[in-house]
């Protein structure tokens, strides 16, 4: 019952930590993936986490869901082939994918956003639309296996929706 978090440097600290701890509270095991196993990944506000696994080691079939926190992290890792492949595979398997704030940048780079209803931080709204997504300005948007939210203020809606979906698995 593992939940994968893909994380890049300068992630938005609370957008990782809030759902990370909620997942634990509900009895699931969060796993942090980074560029290298054991590497320290530092958030925008100075909190650090250690990668449990490298992106190259991830097998999406081993996880219930994928969580993509925002901040600058998605921008830093969105072009990595393994990050795009992980994301595509979660969509192929129809497993839940939860992206908040700048997280949809990874969805855009992975080519999985076309035709999906999605929300994000306002500054990437045009990117979402250009990639074929239908932008919805709402605290949380669910479309099939995709859960998305706009910013840290939406975290209660984001996390509760993620937990609701995980409990159905």
Report what the structure shows:
- By secondary structure, this protein is of the alpha/beta class.
- The protein has one domain (2-168): Class I glutamine amidotransferase (GATase) domain (Rossmann fold, 3-Layer(aba) Sandwich).
- The protein is built from 6 helices and 11 strands.
- It has helices at 13-25, 73-77, 81-92, 104-110, 125-130, 155-168; strands spanning 2-6, 29-34, 40-42, 48-50, 53-54, 65-68, 97-100, 117-118, 134-135, 141-143, 146-149.
- The chain has a 7-stranded mixed beta sheet with strand order 5-2-1-6-7-11-10, with helices on both faces.
- The chain is globular.
- This is Glutamine amidotransferase.
- InterPro entries: C56_PfpI-like, Class_I_gatase-like, DJ-1/PfpI.
The fraction of residues assigned to DSSP E strands is 15-25%
Would you count the extended β strands for me?
A: 11
**CATH superfamily, please?**
Class I glutamine amidotransferase (GATase) domain
Task: Record the strand order, biggest sheet.
Answer: 5-2-1-6-7-11-10
Query: Termini separation (Å)?
Result: 9 Å
Largest sheet: 7 strands, mixed
Kindly provide the name of the CATH class.
Alpha Beta
CATH-assigned fold name: Rossmann fold
Spans of at least 5 consecutive residues whose pLDDT stays below 50 are none
Structural class: alpha/beta
Query: Radius of gyration, rounded?
Result: 14 Å
Mean pLDDT: 98
* Number of domain units: 1
Order of helices and strands: EHEEEEEHHEHEHEEEH
Number of helices: 6
InterPro entries: C56_PfpI-like (IPR006286), Class_I_gatase-like (IPR029062), DJ-1/PfpI (IPR002818)
Family: Belongs to the peptidase C56 family.
Keywords: Glutamine amidotransferase
Pfam family, one: DJ-1_PfpI
């Amino acid at each position: 019952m593992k939940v994968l978090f893909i994380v890049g440097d300068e992630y938005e600290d609370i957008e990782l930590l809030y759902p990370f701890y909620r997942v634990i509270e509900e009895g699931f095991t969060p796993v942090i993936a980074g560029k290298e196993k054991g590497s320290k990944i530092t958030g925008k506000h100075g909190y650090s986490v250690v990668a449990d696994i490298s992106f190259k080691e991830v097998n999406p079939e081993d996880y219930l869901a994928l969580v993509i926190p925002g901040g600058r992290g998605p921008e830093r890792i969105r072009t990595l082939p393994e990050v795009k492949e992980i994301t595509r595979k979660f969509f192929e398997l129809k497993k839940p994918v939860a992206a908040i704030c700048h997280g949809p940048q990874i969805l855009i780079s992975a080519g999985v956003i076309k035709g999906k209803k999605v929300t994000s931080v306002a500054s990437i709204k045009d990117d979402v639309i250009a990639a074929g997504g239908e932008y919805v300005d709402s605290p949380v948007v669910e479309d099939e296996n995709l859960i998305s939210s706009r910013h840290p203020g939406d975290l209660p809606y984001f996390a509760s929706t993620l937990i609701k979906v995980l409990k159905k698995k």
